[in-house]
Amino acid sequence: MTGNLFEDAKKYCEFHFMYGGGDKSADIRAGVNNLLAEYHNATQPIMCRQTLLERIKYVFDLAKSDSSHKKFYIIRKSGRHGLFSYVTIFFSHICYALAQGLIPVIDMQTLPCKYVEEESSIKNGWELFFKQPCGYTLDDVAKSGGEYFFSSIDVFPQHLTVGVQWGNEMQPFKHYDILRRLYSNFFHLNDSVVEYVNAAHEKLFPHSARILGVKCRGTDYTQPENLKYHAIQPKPENVIDYVREVMPKWTCDYIYLATEERRIYELFNNAFPGRVIKSNDMFYDDVDVDYSKTLIDEVNFDRDNDVFLRGAEYITDIILLSRCTSSVFGINNGSTAALYINDGKYENVHVFNLGVY
């Protein structure tokens, strides 16, 4: 067992780095910024497409080889986040693994994780929904006898991802092509989730229909006190006005609406009767919670297998959004994920770029 350049960040474990913000001491800020600078320098070559492809091939070849000199990069993250927030964070760490010739393995069992239940046979929360990036589990690493390195607990490297969300068209999205390639190579849903998503697609999407995907956040994502430096979300009434304008121009038959609020669903359903598709009937505003004080990740539904279902429902929303003909989004990790999963196939895209809270 050994460390890497992020091991020193453990001393900053109470400091959640986001856009250089926070009210912590100047020493802590300086330490985190130094770590990020080292990370940036290490991964900068990966920003070149050809180098990225070469490093992906090298790491997969290494993973498949009989070499006894494999080195692994154990990726950890503390805290409570949505699944595609984790994906965003892990993008950056996988870039580091590629740059250093390390095999990435995602560990969501060593630290507290909302996706792990005591009675579950699956102890790594990542594996409840996704396969491991290169097929190696934590048990495989322990048995391999190879050397392994740990990622930071709390430092969130931003240089890869921060630019991807600012812009009103797909083309200006910084590093968009890199995100597409990282996702397609290293992020694969497990068989249970693939089955869940495909069953929803078959049930909900009329054959050959032209569908406009809309992601419209509510609950905690519209509470400025929770979301310093996060993107301002559009008001649903403004999204409805825009959708009403573009549906005939983009010749869409239906709207696939990804939202966690019943109020927003009812607004759309009233505006477009008989044309709104929704993947499930679970709404977070049905739960008696003050979202100015509570994050959506802290809310549970009183049903069997809720941990898996909440994750699978969210993934289904994003995958079905990515399969639509065109899209209209506010800026958040879910809508960004739909863009890179779609892989440039959308005929039309509009992103509400309203600045940050």
Explain what you see.
With 357 residues, the protein is α/β, with parallel strands linked by helices. It folds into 2 domains: 7-186, no CATH class; 191-352, Rossmann fold. Helix content is 38%, strand content 10%. It has 10 helices and 8 strands. The strands form 2 sheets. A 5-stranded parallel sheet has the order 6-5-4-7-8, sandwiched between helices. Helix 8 links the parallel strand 5 (254-258) and strand 6. Helix 6 crosses helix 9 (306-322) and helix 9 packs across helix 10 (333-342). It is globular, with a radius of gyration of 21 Å. The termini are far apart.
Descriptive labels:
alpha/beta, Rossmann fold, five-stranded parallel sheet, three-stranded parallel sheet, 8 strands
Average pLDDT rating: 79
**Biggest β-sheet: count, sense, barrel?**
5 strands, parallel
Helix content: 25-40%
The global form is: globular
- Give helix and strand order, one letter per element, not per position: HHEHEHEHHEHEHEHEHE
Question: Distance between termini?
Answer: 41 Å
Supply the number of helical segments. Answer: 10
> Low-confidence parts lasting 5 or more residues at pLDDT below 50?
1-23, 153-157, 161-172
> Structural class, from helix and strand content?
alpha/beta
Give the C-alpha Rg: 21 Å
Number of domains: 2
Oligomer: single chain
Portion in strands: 5-15%
Using DSSP, what is the number of strands? Answer: 8
Spatial strand sequence of the major β-sheet: 6-5-4-7-8
